[in-house]
Amino acid sequence: MTELRHRGARDTDPTLQQQPSEDKGSDSELKVEKDGVLESDSKVDSGVPEVPVPPDDTPEVLNKALSGLSSRWKNWWVRGILTLAMISFFFFIIYLGPMVLMMIVLCVQIKCFQEIITIGYSVYHSYHLPWFRTLSWYFLLCVNYFFYGETVTDYFFTLVQREEPLRILSKYHRFISFALYLTGFCMFVLSLVKKHYRLQFYMFGWTHVTLLIVVTQSHLIIHNLFEGMIWFIVPISCVICNDIMAYMFGFFFGRTPLIKLSPKKTWEGFIGGFFSTIVFGIMLSYVMAGWRYFVCPVEFNNDSNSFQVDCEPSELFQLQDYALPSILESVTGWTTVRLYPFQIHSIALSSFASIVGPFGGFFASGFKRAFKIKDFANTIPGHGGIMDRFDCQYLMATFVNVYIASFIRGPNPSKVIQQLLALRADQQLHIFNSLKAHLIEKGLLPALEEAAA
C-alpha cells in the first residue's frame, strides 16, 4: 500500500503515538523485541494511519479482586474467568438447538465483519471519502442474501415449492443477487473521488477480502451444522481446546519462541496443545457419537415446520472392533479396541486444529501488527474482540467442509426425490421409464418384483 503510506505520512497527525501490536495477552509484550523486528516494522510502516486503541473495559469487580496481582497473573485470571464464561455460554446454545446455533453464527459473522471494517474505516475516514462504510454493509447484505438464499433453497426445498412467493424468489434468486451486487458496484464507481482512486480501490478490495474471509466461511459453518451437530461441535471444541492448552503450556513451560509474528507463542505451547487436542478430540467424539441428537443430520420437517435431528445413525457412528498393531498389543495386552469410526476422523480434525489452525491466528497477528493494534476490539476483556476468538475457527470451518465433501458425504436420495417431485408430470414419467429400463438391464427389477410377490 505504497500510496497509502506516502499519503499517511503527509496527512496524519505527527504527534500520534505508535502502538506496537502483539498477540492476545498482557501489555508486557508491547516492548521492542531483541532482534529489532518491531523497530523495523515501525520504520517501514510509519506512514500507516493509526487506529485508535480501545480502552481497557475489564469489569471493575475483577480489577478490584485482582488488584494485588502482577500484570501477568492478572491477565491470566481475567482470561481464565472469561474463558469459562464463554464455554458455559457455548454449552447453553448447544442445548437450545440447531436453529439458535445458526443465529449465533450469523451474529458472530456480523460482529467480526464490523470489527475488520472498523479498522479499514479508521484508515479510510481520515481522507474524508464518502460511502465506504455504507457500501461495506450493503455488500455484506448482498452476500448474505445470496448464501442464505442458496441454503434455504437447498435445505427447505419442499417449503419453498409450497409457498408461491418463496418459489418465485427461489427461481430467480441468483439473478436478484447479481442485480443487488451490481447496484453496489455502480454506487462504488459513482463514489470515486479524484486523486484518491487508488486508495478507494484498496478499500474496495478490503471489503471484498473481508467478505471472503468472514461471510463465506461462516456459511460453510452452517453447512457443516446441517451434516450433524457433531461436525459443528467437535471442530470448534478442538480449536478451543488447542487454544487453551497451548496457552497453558506456554504460560507455565514456554521458553522457545515459535514465530516472530506472535512473540507469546512458544514451541512448548504448540507441542503441548497438539497432544492435548488429539486426546480431547478422541474422548469428545466417543461421548458425542453415541447420541442421535448430535450425529443425525439437521433436517426440516415439513409437517411440523421445525428442525428435527432424528435418524438411524450411519456406520460412522456405530461401534466397531479394530485390530491393534503388534507394538500396541504387546504394551496393552489387547488384541482389538472398540471405537466409533468417527473417532478416527476426529484425529484428522484435531491434527488440523492444532497444527494448521494456529496459522489463522498468526495471520490475524500479522494483520494487527500491520496496523499497530493489539486486538481487533475490546468486546471480551482479556481476549480482545470476537474476531480475536474466531481467527482460527474460520480456517477450521473450511477444512471441515472440504473434508466432509471429500471423505464423508455421499449422494443424498431425499434431495434427489425433492428435485424429481418439482418436475412436470411428463418429465417425471420419462425419468421413471429410464430408471426402470436401467434396473431391468442390471437385473435388479425382476428380483424386486419377486420379493414383492
Structural features, described:
The protein is mainly alpha-helical and 453 residues long. The protein has 21 helices and six strands. The strands form three sheets. Strands 1-2 form a two-stranded antiparallel ribbon. Strands 3-4 form a two-stranded antiparallel sheet. A hairpin with a 4-residue loop joins strand 3 and strand 4. Helix 11 packs antiparallel against helix 12. The longest helix is centred in the middle third of the chain and has 30 residues. The N and C termini lie far apart (76 Å). The N terminus is likely disordered.
Summed up:
The chain is mostly helical.
Unreliable segments of 5+ consecutive residues: 1-46
Count every helix, treating DSSP H or I runs of 4 or more residues as helices. 21
Query: What global shape is seen?
Result: flat
Structural class: mainly alpha
Roughly how many Å apart are the termini? 76 Å
**Strand proportion:** under 5%
How many distinct beta strands?
A: 6
List the helices and strands and how they pair.
Elements: H1 2-11, H2 37-44, H3 60-65, H4 71-96, H5 98-124, H6 132-155, H7 157-162, H8 164-171, H9 173-190, H10 197-226, H11 230-253, E1 257-259, E2 262-266, H12 267-288, H13 292-295, E3 299-301, E4 306-308, E5 320-323, H14 326-332, E6 336-339, H15 341-355, H16 358-370, H17 386-390, H18 393-408, H19 413-421, H20 425-442, H21 445-452
Antiparallel strand pairs: 1-2, 3-4, 5-6
Helix pairs in contact: 5-6, 5-10, 6-9, 6-10, 10-11, 10-18, 11-12, 11-15, 11-18, 12-15
